[in-house]
Amino acid sequence: MRLVNIIELVKQYLLQGAILAVIAGGIAGAGYFIIYKKMMKGERRIRPLNVLWAGVFFCYLAVMLSATLLDRVSGWSDTRMMPLFYSYREAWYSFSGAEWRNIVLNILLFVPFGFLLPLGIRFFRRFWVTYLTGLAVTVLIESTQLILARGVAEADDILNNFLGTMIGYGIYVLFREITAAAKRKRFSVLKMAAAQIPLAAIVLVFVGIFIMYDRQELGNLEIGLSSRIDMSDVQMTTTENYSSQPGTAAVYKIPVYTEEETRKIADNFFASLGQTLDESRTDLYDETAVYYSTEQNSLWIDYAGGTMSYTDYAVVFGDDPEAETYPEPVSGEDEATVRSALSTYGIQVPEGAVFQEQSDESSDLPGYEFSVSQQRDGDRFYDGSLYCTLYDGGKLGDISNHILSCEKYKDYPILSEDEAWKQIQSGNFRYSGQAGDEIKELELGAVSMKYVIDSKKYYQPVYSFEASVNGQDGYEIVVPALKSASGGK
After folding, report:
1. How do residues 416-447 score in pLDDT, each as one tens digit?
2. Strands 235-238, 441-453: parallel, antiparallel or unpaired by DSSP?
3. In this predicted model, which residue has the larger pLDDT, 450 or 365?
4. Dist CA 102 CA 51 (whole Å)
5. Direct distance between the N- and C-terminal alpha carbons of the chain, in angstroms, rounded to an integer
């Protein structure tokens, strides 16, 4: 779950939890003063701190249960629970900030649980009682998700929530011992240190993972996420003769820009069109920066590759806000005319790109597309497509330029085709079939080399085998081509 989703959930359910806490507090208060104090003549008093704790804990439970059960989409068709460490493997091979953030947020979600329970209830001040309670609650939540098909049930969620409970209890012990020291009571440094072992261990593991990743020369390929396939009962054939000749292949680097660099790109882009960057209006996201001109035109720039999307609202909707019709984009222009129009916006389309006129699927407006598929030109590498709409006077209304222009990084030794074939024989591969499909017959066809983007924004070579699985054609089996994909610094 993304951070923005957690924040929205807190906003959405915290008020509801607070209202329920007030209602529950009113009922409890009425019972206390009417039944206990008046009718039963009780003399024990409710401590204000206990009331505060109950309110906070009730609100927390409302947010936690909403995040784990109520705010999940029902209808998940897979009746399995995702295996332990699956989300960690996903995060490792994609090395996406969002994936790692989800793991951390699932840990943090149960930190208040491990802290508040022993803080408010004496029975839970033994560590093992709080630990087991946290484990039981998260197992119950994941089992409910699995039974009711709400969201994805994951063993990793149980692990992460349990770790959060342990960290929360450690924070409670730290708070308790510091409070005791402030009151000049007996406190134990050893207990404080022992209670922080789970937090220290988790920090060390994460630091180790990120150091190991940083020391890799290249990134990870998501195709590595696939599990090894048992080939013992698979009938495997081929009519191809795969080469055993060793060789090398180039790796290409996608340029990655900082926020400041994208701002300069936006400033220069707007300036070339006679527009001014609106410094007060910028939206920054994980992978994209969005800039606006003072004329309210928008420019989206991706950090990876500097690919961009631009809309000129004056061109698309016209200068007259009261006009009943909008300007129509022109059609029937040739490639040279469209290239010339793009050049006035500082965009040079690679030679050899395939040109065609087409309609934007979202609006049915006539537009033009250039596409280039993994084209190598000396030490340059191009991949992607560009779409634009052209108006009178050579003006462009929309530009969506997602052609990546990469430089050669260096050559690496690669597996031979025969060695890649042996990788498949051992079950160490990934194919584009449905999850859970059991392979009984596998026939491999022609092999070609293509490129995929790794987690550090390098284009790495892979072998792509045409395949027939269980008598059905149209499958693809992909094997990393580099002999050592990770490298080292």
Report:
1. 999 999 999 988 887 655 545 678 899 999 99
2. parallel
3. 450
4. 33
5. 33
